[in-house]
Structures are given as C-alpha cells and as structure tokens.
Amino acid sequence: MSDNQRHKQGMATRRSVLGAAHVDRAEAAKTPFDEAFQELITEAAWGHVWSRDTITKRERSMMTLALLAGLGNFEELALHTRATANTGASRDDIMEAMLHVAIYAGVPRANHAIKVIKQVFEEMDGKST
C-alpha cells in the first residue's frame, strides 16, 4: 500500500472511530509544526494498526482504553471513551478493561480512569453539569 493509500485508509478509520467532527477539528488545528506528527498518527496508528481486521474495533477499543488508563493518559482515555459509541465497546466491556488495569497496572490508575470515564458517560448521557 502506498503512503497516500495508507493515509486515506487511516483517515477513513480515524473518522469511523473518533467521529468526523473530532477529526475535522484536529485537521483544522494542524499547523506546519505538528503536520508531520498528524501524518504519522494517521498513517501508523489509524492506517496500520486500527485498520487491521485481525481483531474487531470493539476489542481494539478495549485494549486502547486499558493501555491509556494503565499509562495514565487520561485526556486520551476520555477521547477513546467517547469513541466507544462508534466501536461497539459497551460500558460493561469498559469496566472489564478497567478491572484488568487495576490488577496489572494498579488500583490508583484504574480508580482515576474510572472517574474520568464516569464523567465522559455523564457528558454522553447529557447529564453533565
């Protein structure tokens, strides 16, 4: 697959997972400074990894949430929690991932991740204050 094809595939997958509005905002905010980074994540993360059909987007979403929580990347955790509306990962799936985080990465990381996820759920349910 050529770089241009990989970029197109990555952009399509990125839009399907994160939503067109998010990707449009990210693209509009792109500057010459971060253009190479945006190309990298579109082609590598979205074109290479997320576009693979070995596992489902639901499974990939659960792994991503667990990794982000375990590493303490809570802003990205919120983004990917919102993306579960597009990946098919249920709230039960997300809690299963957080239980794994608690055991394998630590209770404090899981505890904070659950706090973030609950806030995102409130926003998604229209209950945000």
Question: What does this protein look like?
Answer:
The protein folds into two domains: 54 residues, no CATH class; 74 residues, AhpD-like, CATH 1.20.1290. Helix 1 crosses helix 3, helix 4 runs antiparallel to helix 5 and helix 5 crosses helix 7. It contains seven helices and no strands. The N and C termini lie far apart (46 Å). With 129 residues, it is mainly alpha-helical.
Taken from the alpha-carbon principal axes, the silhouette is: globular
Q: What kind of sheet is the major sheet?
A: none
The proportion of residues in beta strands is under 5%
- Work out the helix count: 7
Number of E-state strands:
0
Average predicted confidence as pLDDT = 96
Question: H/E order of the elements?
Answer: HHHHHHH
- The helix fraction, in percent, is over 70%
Distance between the termini: 46 Å
Give the oligomeric state of the chains in this entry, treating copies of one chain as homo and distinct chains as hetero: single chain
Rg calc = 15 Å
What is the level-2 CATH architecture name of the largest domain?
A: Up-down Bundle
What's the number of structural domains?
2
Low-confidence stretches: none
Q: Give me the CATH superfamily of the largest domain.
A: AhpD-like
Structural class: mainly alpha
- CATH top level assignment of the largest domain: Mainly Alpha
> CATH topology of the largest domain, anyone?
AhpD-like
Task: Produce the secondary structure layout.
Blueprint: H1 3-18, H2 20-29, H3 35-49, H4 57-71, H5 74-87, H6 91-104, H7 107-124
Helix pairs in contact: 1-2, 1-3, 4-5, 4-6, 5-7, 6-7
